[in-house]
Amino acid sequence: MYTTSKPDPIRLEIFKNLYQFIAEQMGIVLQNTATSVNIKERLDFSCAIFDSSGLLVANAPHIPVHLGSMSESVRSLIKDKGDTLKSGNVYLSNNPYNGGTHLPDVTAITPVFLESSENNPSPMPNAQCPMPIFFVASRGHQADIGGITPGSMPPHSTTVEEEGILFDNFLLVEEGNFRETVVRQHLSNHTYPARKPDQNLADFKAQIAANERGVQELSKMVAQYGIDTVQAYMTFVQANAEESVRRAIAVLKDGSFTYKMDNGAQIQVKVTIHPENRSATIDFTGTSLQLNSNFNAPKAVTQAAVLYVFRTLVDDNIPLNAGCLNPLEIIIPVGCMLNPIYPAAVVAGNVETSQTIVDALYGALGVMAASQGTMNNFTFGNEQYQYYETICGGSGAGIDFDGTDGVHSHMTNSRLTDPEVLETRYPVLLESFSLRPDSGGKGKYSGGNGVIRRIRFLEPMTANILSSHRVVPPFGLNGGEAGKIGRNWIQRQNGIEENLDSTATVEMKTRDVFVIETPGGGGFGKIS
């Protein structure tokens, strides 16, 4: 019998990797069983495990903006349904005001109950074990969840209702029974209903399967090591992450940064380091008030961005988890664009504003120039087809490194769909996809280059672009040059070119080409 009063260093490493391995196994199941291009090909999903209070223990290396915010969704479920949680139940949530990011990101949460014995793999009846010992969750970006435009990423939404259907701790599976009829009703009973409920249901089932793998693996772990050891090491893993972040904070200096966005809004952040206890205060006072546009970032997204930045400052191989947040006091005024009040629109806050928060924090800390600062969210579709992709660009240079060309950076970590898959599944032609020369900012260390992506439409569809840094260039640091701004434009079949704003909706006709030129990253340091 091993003592669990303090961690054994070897066992700590074993459990750290075991928890992460379980989340990775969940991700493999989700990718293999999903049907949508979004999840299966672009890997726009995340899986993680949580302790009994809903705090993040470990995750697979999936999407940072999901992982830093999912804990809020799990804790919301505990608060809302804590005394009614049962074995075999699965819940759905995408509420941006309850830990969600934006409506297309739907989280399936499964509570895990203690098994009755090693020989009986079914969980105990709820009466014998009233509270879950863990939670597992998977978050997947739905190809369409309703809203005013196909793909549910409307450039011009002003309320969350226009962005699609909201699930708030919705009972998806009740004691092992999939509630298909109720889910279909929920997807269709809306001013702007989901366009392909069958696809939603298929992806929900894939998320259920992924969670079930997590339940099975955690149950095996408990059978092998005992519940006390497994739970103790969940705490130790979080404490280890906390200590790693405190060590990283100890070498930082105070700083502040104000970052203006294309729409005129600004993010203001002040970082104060407290060396006596190796902690930091991150204060967003001075940030623009809640916007009439959809660039408001839910509080959970803002926290996820802060968590990401401080995790990247740690050299150790630790899982991103709740322990990373313990040394951080985050001040986000209620009613500002980083902590909006319902029913503010938020679809771009998750994908665009999150990137600006990260760059503003790196700017305040003086460690890295701005990356492209956008996900270049491109959606197109009609009643039959709905497609969404994020497009890579240049990453920023840092104290001792160049930026990278054509990469998804910071709060996103998804792939682009393979051209063969894209052209097989949708009536479009990927005409060209290339690096954008000289778009990265020059410096002692240069920013990465953006890309140019040209997609020709083979039948009429509505296309939407939701992007940033088409007006304000990604900043350089310490004398480095800014990266080049991006550009969105249409080449009509008759040769006429139409320039588009950072956010735009446009009707594409057959043979029209949509062109997206993504920004480069900023340079770092003067060229000597």
Describe the structure.
- It is a single chain.
- The chain contains ten helices and 22 strands.
- The protein has helices at 9-33, 37-40, 64-67, 70-81, 180-188, 197-225, 227-249, 299-312, 347-365, 419-425, and strands at residues 45-50, 56-59, 90-93, 105-112, 115-117, 120-123, 134-141, 170-174, 177-178, 255-260, 266-274, 279-283, 328-331, 377-381, 386-389, 428-435, 451-457, 461-466, 487-491, 497-500, 503-508, 513-517.
- The strands form five sheets. A seven-stranded antiparallel beta sheet has the order 2-1-7-4-3-8-9, with helices on both faces.
- Helix 1 (9-33) runs antiparallel to helix 6 (197-225), helix 1 crosses helix 7 and helix 8 (299-312) packs parallel to helix 9.
- Residues 117-129 have low confidence and may be disordered.
Q: Which short descriptors sum up this protein?
A:
528 residues, alpha+beta, seven-stranded antiparallel beta sheet, five-stranded antiparallel beta sheet, 10 helices, 28% helix, globular
In short:
The chain is an alpha+beta fold. The protein has ten helices and 22 strands. It is globular.
